[in-house]
């Protein structure tokens, strides 16, 4: 269950990272509010996952999920470059997340 909570926390991290782009420097009320709610939920879920998962593993997976999701949404939503080497590097992060899951009890 902790792994599911951790992945959901990572998804909310994606939400607040992308949300930051839409806040326009925290000048837009609705995107700012949604971004803050995503931050709170993400951190709360990470805290719950940390009850049973090792700190280093949980933090690495949380940031990894956030990084991969944010990078992919940056490509999709904002037209950021989707160069082959960039995608390979994103794939390596995914491999790291899977590897941590496989070696963590």
TrEMBL record:
- Mind telling me which residue stretches traverse the membrane in this protein? 33-50, 57-78, 84-103
GO molecular function terms noted in the UniProt entry: transmembrane transporter activity
Q: Where does it sit, as one GO cellular component term?
A: plasma membrane
Keywords of the record, alphabetical order, are:
Cell membrane, Membrane, Transmembrane, Transmembrane helix, Transport
Q: How does it sit in the membrane?
A: Multi-pass membrane protein
Q: Which InterPro entries match?
A: EmrE-like, Small_drug/metabolite_transptr, Small_multidrug_res
Which biological processes are named by the entry's GO terms?
Answer: xenobiotic detoxification by transmembrane export across the plasma membrane
What Gene3D superfamilies is this protein classified in?
1.10.3730.20
| Location(s) in or outside the cell | Cell membrane
Family that this chain belongs to: Belongs to the drug/metabolite transporter (DMT) superfamily. Small multidrug resistance (SMR) (TC 2.A.7.1) family. Gdx/SugE subfamily.
Question: Any idea what this protein is called?
Answer: Guanidinium exporter
């Amino acid at each position: 269950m902790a792994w599911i909570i951790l992945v959901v926390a990572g998804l909310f991290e994606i939400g607040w990272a992308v949300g930051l782009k839409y806040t326009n420097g925290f000048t837009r009320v609705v995107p700012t509010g949604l971004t803050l709610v995503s931050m709170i939920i993400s951190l709360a879920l990470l805290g719950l996952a940390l009850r049973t998962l090792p700190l280093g593993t949980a933090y690495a997976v949380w940031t990894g999920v956030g990084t991969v999701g944010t990078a992919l949404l940056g490509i999709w939503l904002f037209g950021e470059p989707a160069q082959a080497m960039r995608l390979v590097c994103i794939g390596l992060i995914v491999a790291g997340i899977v590897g941590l899951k496989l070696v963590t009890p």
